[in-house]
Design brief:
By secondary structure, the chain is α+β, with helices and mostly antiparallel strands. It is built from 29 helices and 22 strands. The longest helix is centred in the N-terminal third of the chain and has 28 residues, at about 1-30. It is elongated, with a radius of gyration of 34 Å. Keywords: Carboxypeptidase, Cell membrane, Cell shape, Cell wall biogenesis/degradation, Glycosyltransferase, Hydrolase, Membrane, Multifunctional enzyme, Peptidoglycan synthesis, Protease, Transferase. In the C-terminal section; belongs to the transpeptidase family. In the N-terminal section; belongs to the glycosyltransferase 51 family.
């Protein structure tokens, strides 16, 4: 009888074993549950964020979908502390098993399943956890699949061990894990919580991150510091037990507080936010189609079409394809974009904007407008004009659009806009909590002055710094490359260039008196002048440009053709088709972007050769292969002789003219430049260049009717020039950047600016004593 029972038990055991074997074979073949294809196991479908890097190797930011801000890191880029902490805590026999740790699994079954001990530890290996991370979404879609989830994970874990090395499994696990706060993967997490690369993580920092693997929400160090510290100490103790750290190291590290260097990962924050957004927009741009543009967007359609044909970076994602023939996706393909931005120079540019605009100019603007009923608008507007502007602002707001889409009546919308509510608003000293009506908040934000700044190398076009506004979170319209404003007197160098191209020289003279020109319709035009210095005297063209004299500009315009001036401006890289060939063009009523102006002025520093802004030097795929390189785009727009003559005159603007304020900031460098101020102080400009850098700045209100009412603060020399000067001073003070105030422009040997083209072809030498030629 006993023998029969034993036989039956053996048969049942064999049947059970056979069933188990058939179960695992069925799972492996995909007959039961979900088993990913071999191709997926060999190439898991990770979504890696694209990294945007500066020329000096700093990560400016990443592009990703909200839950996939993952940046790939290989095993050799991991700190040994991270690896040791992970193995000690999650899978101490990781090197010994082949996907399933029988010993740990048995212990978990017996202690948890039979003895109900909560501290029995888990039975899942790292390979199983990776399998769960990779394929749980597909596995657990219904009750049956959830029932077989563990066996499926075991099978996948074994297959993963077959296809990958232990090192690859470790790096895959760490790359996949979501550490919260938009930090997916160990590289993003290391930067987010500690501001480090994974290879530089200290023992206690690695232990903190690995501690989060148990439950990132529960052990989030940003929200629950002490709880996360306790979990970190558990990990440190596991590392001690595994022999990775000594007992004294463990005791010492457990006593230290948990200190973070938290960096919030958000595309709206960090360095070069406007630049990154502009770059993202042009790289992912579709091929322009006329049907996608409204009638009032014809200028943009023209620019986009031109960019598509001439700029390899514009629409790059669609113009280039991956190995499988699909276009690149900047959010998921793990690209590395190597930009021309220098992180330190970018920081100095943003600092300069904050110091002048935020700490000095904005308080002055608030002071001027305080108590005025029409603030921040000019008193020259009527109350009805102000109301019309605010009405338009309301209807263009997101709040209005969302309420309209939700079916609210116009009456209800207006009531909501005039109902006070709690809100946080921008200030230069940080967010402020206040109570305002949405309508008042719109008006509040219009008080803030805007700016655009760009700095680039005139020889290769590398854009070193790019600021599109005061703060990207609150003011997202880019005034560096996207927005255009009237340029005022900064247009005059184009006029003078046209004169030099037509045989004039800086030494040519004109009588300094009022000028009256007739337009094509025979209508007289007489420009006003800022001052009457040297009235009635003969003055040189050099003096006229140095002092930004409107009468001398009008005199030249009377000798030249407005149509030729428009053509010349376009040849300098300005794409605005709406520039009108009128006699008043010589004073700058046309609208041009900061980026276009900076690019145009490179011709004055580069012997008449204009270079287009170069934003990116190369792009690498997720495997480190270079898939695109980018080179400077140059064109000769004026003769070298004319460029040398312009250089002489633009130096005079700084040394003896309207740009002299630069010298008050300790800038002794050899440089040229031009100030610009439009009617009613609506726009303030300064363009400045040295042999190695061309930079430009615009400052103004969101609308042209928002401006200073006096020239004290409203002129370009007060609005924009200080930002340029502060930036350059910081650049020069940082010797590691390699820019020197001792650098000098070079002119051909024997060059005479007062002559024609003679001497222009000689050997270049350092310019000396040029100013004596005009005495």
């Amino acid at each position: 009888m006993i023998r029969k029972i034993i036989k039956i038990l053996w048969v049942l055991l064999a049947i059970f074993g056979l069933i188990i074997a058939l179960l695992f074979v069925s799972i492996s073949k995909g007959w039961i549950g979900y088993m990913p294809p071999v191709e997926e196991l060999e190439n898991p479908n990770y979504k890696f964020a694209t990294e945007v890097l500066s020329e000096d190797g700093k990560v400016l930011g990443t592009w990703s979908y909200s839950k996939e801000n993952r940046v790939y890191v290989g095993y050799n880029e991991l700190s040994v502390n991270v690896v040791n902490a992970l193995i000690a805590t999650e899978d101490v026999r990781f090197a010994e098993h082949s996907g399933i740790d029988i010993k740990a699994l048995t212990r978990a079954v017996v202690k948890r399943g039979l003895l109900f001990q909560k501290n029995a530890g888990g039975g899942s290996t790292l390979s199983q956890q990776l399998a769960k991370q990779l394929f749980t979404d597909e596995v657990a879609k219904n009750t049956m699949q959830r029932l077989f989830q563990k066996p499926i994970e075991w099978v996948i874990a074994v297959k993963l061990e077959r296809y990958y090395t232990k090192e690859e499994i470790l790096s895959m696990y760490l790359n996949k894990f979501d550490f919260l706060n938009n930090a997916v993967g160990i590289k993003t997490a290391a930067y987010t919580y500690f501001g480090r690369e994974p290879k530089d993580l200290k023992i206690e920092e690695a232990a903190t991150l690995i501690g989060m693997c148990k439950n990132p929400s529960l052990y989030n160090p940003v929200r629950f510091n002490e709880r996360a510290r306790g979990r970190r100490n558990v990990v440190l103790d596991q590392m001690r037990k595994a022999g990775y750290i000594s007992e004294s190291e463990c005791d010492s590290l457990q006593k230290t507080p948990l200190k973070l260097a938290y960096n919030r990962v958000d595309h709206k924050e960090g360095l070069a936010t406007y630049f990154r957004e502009y770059l993202r927009g042009i790289m992912s741009a579709p091929k322009p189609s006329r049907s996608d543009y409204r009638n009032w967007q014809m200028q943009k359609y023209y620019e986009d079409s031109l960019s598509w044909e001439t700029n390899p970076l514009y629409g790059w994602c669609l113009k280039n394809q991956k190995k499988d023939g699909t276009p690149y996706n900047i959010y998921t393909d793990g690209l590395k974009i190597y930009t021309t931005i220098n992180s330190r120079m970018q920081h100095y540019a943003e600092e300069a904007v904050r110091e002048h605009l935020g700490e000095y100019l904005q308080p002055q603007f608030f002071k001027e407008k305080k108590g005025r009923k029409k603030a921040p608008f000019s008193n020259m507007l009527s109350e009805k004009e102000v109301d019309d502007i605010m009405e338009r602002a309301m209807k263009q707001s997101d709040r209005y659009r969302l309420m309209k889409d939700a079916g609210y009546s116009e009456k209800d919308i207006r009531k909501a806009f005039n109902t006070p509510q709690e809100m946080s608003v921008f200030s230069w000293s940080g967010e402020r909590d206040t109570i305002l009506t949405p309508m008042d908040s719109l008006r509040y934000y219009k008080h803030f002055l805007r700016t655009g700044f760009m700095s680039m190398d005139p020889l290769n076009g590398h854009v070193k710094a790019y600021v599109g506004g005061p703060n990207y979170i609150y003011f997202q319209y880019d005034m560096a490359m996207v927005g255009r404003r009237q340029v005022g007197s900064t247009i005059k160098p184009y006029l003078y260039t046209l004169a030099m191209e037509n045989g004039f020289s800086p030494c040519d003279q004109a009588r300094h008196v009022e000028q009256t020109l007739l337009d094509e319709n025979g209508t007289p035009w007489s420009p006003r002048n800022a001052n009457n210095k040297r009235y009635g005297e003969m003055v040189t063209l050099k003096w006229g440009l140095a002092n930004s004299d409107n009468w001398i500009s009008a005199y030249l315009m009377g000798k030249l053709n407005p149509y030729e001036l428009v053509r010349l401006i376009h040849s300098f890289g300005v794409r605005n088709k709406d520039i009108q060939p009128t006699v008043s063009l010589c004073l700058g009523p046309c609208e041009i972007s900061v980026g276009e102006m900076v690019s145009a002025y490179t011709a004055f520093a580069n012997k008449g050769i204009r270079v287009a802004p170069l934003l990116v030097t190369r792009i690498e795929d997720s495997e480190g292969n270079v898939i695109s390189t980018f080179n400077p785009q140059m064109s000769e727009v004026i003769s070298a002789t004319s460029a040398y003559k312009m250089l002489v005159m633009l130096r005079a603007v700084i040394n003896e003219g309207t740009g002299g304020r630069v010298r008050r900031y300790g800038i002794t460098a050899d440089m040229g430049g031009k100030t610009g101020t439009t009617n009613r102080n609506s726009d303030g400009w300064f363009m400045g260049f040295t042999p190695s850098l061309v930079s430009g700045c615009w400052v103004g209100g969101e609308e042209r009717d928002i401006h200073f009412d006096t020239m004290t603060f409203g002129q370009g020399a007060s609005l924009a020039l200080p930002i340029w000067a502060k930036y350059m001073k910081k650049v020069y003070d940082d010797a590691s950047l390699g820019y020197s105030q001792q650098e000098r422009f070079k002119l051909p040997n024997g060059f005479d600016p007062c002559a024609g083209s003679e001497g222009a072809d000689g050997e270049p030498v350092e310019e000396t004593g040029l100013d004596d030629l005009f005495n």
